[in-house]
Amino acid sequence: MSNIMIRAENISKVYQLGKLGSGRFREDFRYWLQRKAKADTNSTLADQNILWALKDVSFEVTQGEVLGLIGNNGAGKSTLLKIISRITSPTSGIVMGNGRVASLLEVGTGFHGELTGRENIFLNGSILGMKKKEIDEHFEEIVDFSGVEKFIDTPVKRYSSGMYTRLAFAVAAHMDPEILIVDEVLAVGDAEFQRKCLSKMKEVSTKEGKTVLFVSHNMQALKNLCNRAITLHEGRIVDMGEPEKVIGNYLKKEKQLTTTLHFPDIESAPGNESIRIMSVELAPALLPGQAVPDIRTPLTISFAFWHTDQSRGSLIVGIHLFSISGEFIFDICSNGDLSATGLVEGSCTIPGNFLNDGAYYISIVFVKDTTKRLFYYESCLSFDLEDYRANTAWYGKWKGSVRPDFPVVLNVKDATNS
Fold this sequence. Notes:
Elements: E1 4-16, H1 25-41, H2 43-48, E2 50-62, E3 66-70, H3 77-84, E4 92-97, E5 101-104, H4 117-127, H5 132-146, H6 161-174, E6 179-183, H7 191-206, E7 211-215, H8 219-225, E8 228-233, E9 236-241, H9 243-254, E10 260-262, E11 275-284, E12 299-307, E13 315-323, E14 328-333, E15 342-350, E16 358-368, E17 372-385
Parallel strand pairs: 3-7, 3-8, 5-6, 6-7
Antiparallel strand pairs: 1-2, 1-4, 8-9, 10-11, 11-12, 12-15, 13-14, 13-16, 16-17
């Protein structure tokens, strides 16, 4: 049991909603009596005035373990980290920690805006319980890691948010804590900084035996960095275990978008006198072990429609793909040979290792003789692709909407011995 660094037992945190204190004891006491009387006569009203940010949360973290916390906004992740960091107290339950804790819960937590970067390094070190000699030993490493050498004697209130975050993380990671707590450090900063942060967290856990609690919405980083993961939902632990399994379960519940549309009859089907859509479906060809589609997954778009236009000419069906921000990615079309009327089925497959991770939506257009638009079925499907990376230590956002896996071949033309 000596290697257990954090033990949380039945942690609950309740916030009271409603009126804040007036600053006068008589008025606050009278208000409390009124609320108590209402609560005694109406338990439902009392329940509506409280918020359970956490409820009966229990877990243990061992030395050298990297524990990932996932969940949607408001699930209780940050509240739990604040309790473990001793920033706030639980309403009930206990947290036992074994070692010095360094936390980075918000950009520049513990920094004083009027002080320089140099002064804030010493201030944060003192807050963490370190002596000046210890801070001096790590000072050059902190400044070098943060990349703010030119501005180290500038008040941090003049720093950009990226500079703030780099220095704050550098201080927390280099002050030799037994437990490092990080909340969304990847949300701010450039790609190089993100890579350095992830490499540092892996280093302190594997090489130095430190314990890390890590909150992020970057699922690929969590998979590669964490030994174990916990999912929080409405203040409760709903899943715990291997990161791959826990993240897969979370994504299946939280990232279900519109991937199937079926209409029972032609009267209810969208369209007009020429086109009636009966079904549109996106089917991912999941690879062994996959819970949700990622960038490697082939995606087949299938559709069926009634073609009732009696005029002569050929019909073309086009598929338009957009990023969730509205960027047009591609337009692919059928061959234009279709002229007969009736029920038509079609399909198209987007190969794996073509799209970047992110959310997308699909529209389908029906055109007569390449010029006359018969019907445009806008935003009929939407889907989300998760990231996947191998043999890399960087998990920042890959630029662009496409990410083709084309080989890059290098040939040595004139070898020299060094």
